[in-house]
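hey so i finaly got around to running the thing on OmpR/PhoB-type domain-containing protein from Amycolatopsis albispora. pasting the sequence first so u can double check i didnt mess up the copy paste, my clipboard has been acting weird all day
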Amino acid sequence: MRYGILGPAEVLTATGEPLPVGGPRVRALLTLLLLDAGRVVPAERLLDGLYGGEPPANPVNALQSQVSRLRQAGIAVELLPAGYRLDVAPEQVDAHRFERLADSGRRALAAGDHAGAAARLTEALALWRGPALADAPNAGAAAARLEELRLAALEDRIDADLGRGEHQALVAELGELVAAHPLRERLRGQLVRALHAGGRRAEALSAFEDARRTLADELGVDPSPELAAIHLDVLRAEARPEAPRSTLPTALTSFLGRSGDLRQVSALLGDGRLVTLTGPGGAGKTRLAVEAARHWPGETCLVELAPIDTDVAQAVLSALGLRESTFPADRPATPPADRLVAALATRNLLLVLDNCEHLVDEAAALTARLLAACPALRVLATSREPLAITGEATWPVAPLPVAPPGAPPADAVTYPAVRLFAERAAAVRPGFTVDERTVGDVQRICAALDGLPLAVELAAARVRSLPLGEIAVRLDDRFTLLSRGDRTAAPRHRTLRAVVEWSWDLLDPEEQTLARRLSVFAGGATAAAVAAVCGAGEIGELAEKSLVELGADGRYRMLETIRAFGAEKLAEAGETERLRRAHAEHFLAFAQAAEPQIRSAEQLDWLAALDADYENLLAALRWATEAEPELALRLVAPLCTYWWMRGRRFEGSMLCRDVALRVGPEPPPGLHDEFVLCVANAVAGTPAHEPLDEHLAVVRRFARDWTRPPRYPMVAMVVGLVAGPPDPGTPADRRGPEGFARDPWSQGLALMGTGLKHMLQGDNNGAERLLRDAVDAYRELGERWGLSLALSHYALLLGRRGELAASVTLSDEALALTELIGATDDTTELLYQRADRRRVHGDLAGAEADYERAIHLARRAGTPEALASAFHGLAEIARLRGRYALARELLGRSRAECSTGGFTQEMIQAQLLVTEGRIDEATGAVEAAERRYREALAAPVSARDHTAAADAVDGLAGIALHHGEPKRAAFLLGAAVALRGVRAGDADVTRITTAVRENLGDDAFDRAYARGQALSPPLALDAAGA
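ok and heres what it spat out for the 3d tokens, dont ask me to read them lol
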């Protein structure tokens, strides 16, 4: 989320939607906490900021009330011994981003980088939406500080613009600023400088005189030495030197997003004499070269080589305006290169050779000769490959950065590709802006076009005649869509196809073969993968010619636009199906090799390897799903482990669903385990699985009859989540460790699964031994994800016993492990499980913070069961605080997230019924409460999850007491222990137990309680349901 305090307080979700915060006091509290984002703010400071000198009668309770309201708005506020803290990174808050950008701009200004300074300072000032801390009227000192920083940043930005020669445009703005701040001498001096630089010397002197008079009248002081020095410069009015000659074209559009490149290229030109800008067509090499030349202090000359096909030296002569004399007529003609050497021998010149790639050998030879013979000459070249001359410095011109998906408009427009699109679109359709309605399409367009400036500009031009959404959709056929451009541009830059064809035609046949075959890769590839799949050509040659990029990670990447063109060429060559199959088989082998490794001590390295090739794995899976479903089935099986470990469960379930539907309701021969894992994974995370009912029958048969080790250990885990514990008496119920493979990971899973079964059936002692052994097994193996699961289940068991400190310690260790490996889904579950234990043991504030963070992560990860559990936990907290209407609302939100089948969802539904029964009971609706308890007890899940059943039985004990049956109440309390084991610290159980014991007396209570506790779980269920 993003937070704003430079104006009225605002909270924006990841999609840019405003989040309602609350009334004035809540907004003031949010503002005060955001001022110190991520740091603890003492309660005294918050009280002072909220109430000033008039605190309420009970200030502590008043502050806690405002904190609670802020939490209800979805803002995670932590209570710590020293005060309150928002778990927010400073970069999420506009005021802190402003200070960082303003400081960066100030440092760039001091270093002489006027363009970079102007860009950063403009971005910083754009964050202001109104007066700082507008919702915190008692934070005047902090607001004044921010306002002073804003004015200083504004003055810095004006200095940067003056340094860029923008004096004419600044005069009007400075006039308004001086009127608003007549005593700020820096603004006065800037106005004098702007007027003087624009040739308005008399007005500059008049502006200084006005400043002098105002300072004398208002403050009784003379102008500062700095302002007096500016005045002296105007009085001297020294003649300006004639500007260096230049053949550079006048810029018709703004130069966006390249301040860092410009700074680096200028530095390279200062340190050396030959700099070559390399990169793919349309990346903006020419524009960057022209801007670098425009900032060069000496003479410059631009030579456009694209239109010519021979004689580079003659083109340079023509650009310099050097014509050969025709007198005397009998003098022999001097070769162009010799004439250039003679003309440039002592000339201090920056020569810009634009588009050398089609004449690279000739351009290189001429450049080498000129640099050797002309010591004052510098050359700035643009080419899709280096000139390869000794002393050459190369600067790769990358595409413009693209905003990440889901970035809010205020953030998206700070990305150069989006800014470029917005500016060019506004030029053809006045009033166009990037806002909540347009930001998604603009982001998709810029990302699909790789941030290539030319492609983005061509797409923006289509806004004149096409709706934005249609442009985004039609980019699958980008070469047709972007087929019209600037009529005045060079032919190779008028359409996107022409840009790519220009590069393609420069490749030899073998390079073209490799380039088109590379189009089957998504997201890049290693040289080894390219060789295995493509089997032709040398990829390094394509990197030299900017058809692919070699990243710092050693992977080669092809821009999507070039990849789309290559895919067309692959189809024309009739190679698409063969290369797609080779690609899919290669990554199937990779996934199969990686799956056992991510269950080992080498887990992090192999997870990173799968991350790097994830787009390739997805591309292979999507192709195989349509073309060869059985190959897709073989591929999803090893990927399931990766999806679970990396918190991609929902994404994986949707992909598995597509594969399962293509395969049909019966497993293909030899792929039974893969089929079961695919279907179970699809059901475990898919919002609705009605089309898979026939497929599920196979999974349920497997869950009932499974006794042999499956090929993939994840089968046991995922099937268990879908089908739940095996029914008593089935082969699966009698299964021991022999039902699992003998590798350490699988045996640890066997221990953990059996321990869970014991815990669900109320055998906590047996469960503890097994879970402790599972923890030890995974520790010895060195695998982090399995260890985190074992720790979390062990923590759950300890929490039931009332060992809260030990339970939370284990949960914290498990959380650290899941965060280390990026298992977002498991982090979410661990948070709400830890919150459950905190809630049961009375730490409502700690539990609330965990639930709220779990909701935030679950929404981001798309895990409905986690959302349902966290909302249920918040409902329980609201119930315990007596806020029954809010509790019912939260229960409704929980139920909406678990409306489908599956064991986990059924468990949550039973828990919701019990909570609703407790609310009914507390509000006097005893009959309704009893109906809900009995409905929960009768749910099929209660026969396998005795914990859910025990909660319902506890509720029925309270109903029995209400009906005047204290002995039955004591008996039911004992029966609940028979089902679940003792759960220490439960406020509801303690309340009912105390009331029943007071009614019966100790002896009668103990006898009835013991009769219930002595029952077996099946008999306890029968007795409670009677």
